[in-house]
Write a structure and sequence with these properties.
832 residues; alpha+beta; four-stranded parallel sheet; 28 helices; 22 strands
Length: 832
Amino acid sequence: MPRQLLAAYPQDTARYDEMLAAPFEAREHWRPLFEALAAAPPEQMRQRLTHVQQQIRENGVTYNVYADPRGADRPWELDLLPLIVSAEEWAQIEAAVSQRAALLDRILADIYGEQRLVREGLLPPPLVHGHAGFLRPAHGIAPPGGVHLHFYAADLARSPDGRWWVIADRTQAPSGAGYALENRLIVSRVFPELFRDLRVHHLADFFGTLRDSLAHWAPSGDEAPLIVLLTPGPYNETYFEHAYLARYLGFPLVEGPDLTVRNGRVWLKTVSGLKRVHAILRRLDDDYSDPLELRSDSALGVPGLTQAARLGNVLIANALGSGLLESDALLGYLPLLCERLTGKPLAMPSVATWWCGEPAALEDALEKLSNLVIKSAFPQQRFEAIFGSDLTPVRRKALIAEMRARPYNYVAQEWVQLSQAPVWDRSHPRRLNARVIGLRVFACASPDGYVVMPGGLTRVGSDADMRVLSMQRGGLSKDTWVLSSGPVSTFSLLRRAIGPQDLVRSGANLSSRVVENLFWFGRYAERCDNVARLLRVALSRLIDQSDAQGGPEWTAIWGLCGRVGLLPGEADDEPESAPGEADTEEALLDALFNDERPTTLASNLRQLSGVAFQLRERLSVDNWRTINRLTRNLARARANRVRIGTAFDLLDRTVLSLMTLAGFALDGMTRDQGWRLLSLGRRIERLQFLWLSLRHALQAPPESGLEWLLDLADSIVTYRSRYMARPERLPVFDLLLLDPGNPRSVIFQVAGIRDYIDRLSDQFGPLPEDPLRPMLPLLREMDLAVLLASPEGIEELGTLLDRIASATFGLSDQIALRFFSHVGASRRTLST
């Protein structure tokens, strides 16, 4: 075995080593991976590492840390190497986790039902009634199908003797399954032959079971069930996962304000009215879910949701109040509860735990304090874990006094020496390091019992001696490969039987919030394109015609930059003259990179990225990668303090990427309401920019020329192919104003907007007001030659352009009132 890989790898430790059975001797199920690593040349490993990091960046895989300066842009950390679990060992884990999930479900049913376990003394009453996670309004609620715990996760750790222990239960809204799936998609492509040859279990079966089980229990009657995934919103630490799972499972991703409760039922606000919701996969904490009965200051929940659950009109997964079982204080009671409820011993023990509210347990814990970890028993008294071995004599004495004064607030737990697994050393071409790991395993309820995902999220410590695993503290993650002893299932979540009642031909379940974001996505994408093109025109003249900077063409371009708001000062204030060349360059670079002014390219790209972040479940990977490249290229150029030559190249790439985004919308989206409103936003924004540009060109002196205007409108090639002459006012304005075949003309935008509005009106009824409707006949009847022949005609043309612009502003308001505020839709739905 080549020792170079293990030159920095610790061989003799008190920890269990996942890969090595003895120094320099790989375990049998790890041997193929180690041999592949040993045979791989350094360049191939560098390429693999680069691929992983590139996929994380381009796919926008993030894990938000509230205190991190990068915030929502903090990339997910993934190690190149998987954790490998043998088929025999996995069979034991699978059975134990399935048993534990069923046990916890029965405990929840008792706590929120008859409470026999409390009455019989098997559960201390303070651990239930004194716990903030016990929701009294949820007592007595019988969930559809009798299942409280639909989705469960167990945090496992391996002790030095090789045994797995459960160190925590996740029962409220377990996170990590989506990250595990993304890890699998990335790492399996890094080692495709190895993944195939080792016969690694696929994950799609598990997610298919989750989806089908929710549909099975959803109280939908004869209609197709509508299942949604409820998220706290884009600033939640695991929002990427919420959007990822919603897209993968095919569930609408909703926030609390997207839902409403009417007559004891839950409804989704869509542009076509209210759609009944039958099941909610909840990623929102228990007490935030309903401001009416639970936490009154919550702006994230759905008022009346508890009552809808009480009436049995909606399935909530997991049931409200399930977070109670995440208390470490309950771990010590599970062995006896398992014997009582199932007649069988607990297959996988919890780490040894003492609730100090019992006098004997308190004395036992104090006696062993140096070897224990002290934690909070209740979430309302949460504090950082205290390791007894770290205490000074003074702090130890103070802690003992605190524990004796309020023993019920404390839990004492044995400290498990976590196992270690190999990670790839990113600073060395051929070397492995070791890091401590823990394994989060997921299970979902099904009509045939609990099904365990054959894999999981392996969490990795940020250093070799880390005692607490936490992604919030900078840890890594790994893909988890569970080996199969037989053929591997090739089930795909994307292939299932679809009945006639399931057919969908339009975005009927698009929430009003999503559609509003699509509308503004179109507007900001077009706004970025407009600004990038104007800056490119300005920089090209500055580079190629620096001797003519004071000429009339430059004056016209500089004036338009001022009117658009790219120059310091108020927008629409046209500067009287351009500054010196150095100041001009700085002003244009500021218009490109300064994200503190709302009209610059950097600021608009940030807005575009923000809206896109709200649409994660609606955007394809290609869309998201393009947006990531846009923002990353701009940030890199700004950090490098580029000058105008490089900035011009950056603008070229920016315009190309924005055209790619437009192409995705044109060829990659179905023509539903969301696409039409996205396209409406794009056309309204383009029309407003055309108005500003044409109005400015009308006011510019004739000697300023019009080539810059054709260049700005991406129409110069068309003009030259038609006229083969210098740009003149009549043919230029005819091309940009009245040519119905030019996608950059005013009439093309107006006609397209009218078509979209008519199609939406056919489905949803006409807008109360439609200020743009009279504009199309006026354009078609216009005698452009006559208008351009006199100052009075030019003034009349300018007035018409102003009317069109004013109509687009009014139309935008009408669209918002009709489709985004949902007032009209709610009223109509309730009256039927």
